[in-house]
Design goal:
Layout lengths: L8 E4 L8 H17 L7 H7 L5 H11 L8 H20 L9 H10 L3 E5 L4 H12 L9 E3 L12 H10 L6 E5 L2 H9 L3 E5 L14 E3 L10
Parallel strand pairs: 1-2, 1-4, 2-3, 4-5, 5-6
Helix pairs in contact: 1-4, 3-4, 4-6
Length: about 230
Amino acid sequence: MRPLGERRCVLFDVDGTIAETEGYAHLPAFNRAFEQVGLPWRWSRDDYHGLLKTAGGFERLLRHAEDIGQDSEALREQLTLVHKAKNSHYGQIMAAGAVPARAGFAELLRALHANAISWGVVTTTSRANWDALWRYSLQPLALPQPSVIVCGEDVTAKKPDPQAYLIALERLGLAPDHCCVIEDSRNGLLAAKGAGLDVVIVASEFFGDEQFEEAQLLVGELTELLAHV
């Protein structure tokens, strides 16, 4: 793989890539929301592992309803309330400092910045969730601001559709070979490859059993990428 130092921008997925938010923030936030709304669902880590094959929190709620034989359309209004409550609980969990950035993330951004390489965020999580991660976990680290942010509200089709990455490239005004993507899931890998981008996969809690043969590089931690800047 061409070194990151030869790129003009490195694009990061968020959940699982920048921080292990899935198991330590999203999952408990869903369970708190179920209780708040009075829905008798509770997800284990094993349940959530399977549900993460579907991109998007609201989409996971619909899928779970279908998986357990309930009418997702009949539940749509209630699930909308669950999703709104879940995002509120997520913000509270992040505000409590429960989820730091992954090891090596801050150092990697500083190394990119020192080499005049920008960075961006391409996620299908909500803008509010990204803002909470930035405010409580990343901004205190005095990191450079991302050059582009694409969130779930910006797309009509979520990963593995490449739309989010195509939007990022358009906003940056860069060709795919000027950028590189860091992801942790197969859905993310397929989305980035569909936009013509090279992909680094960093191992994360929930996606270690997926196949990443199309990736240019696989690493266990972001610290390993410092040698590639």
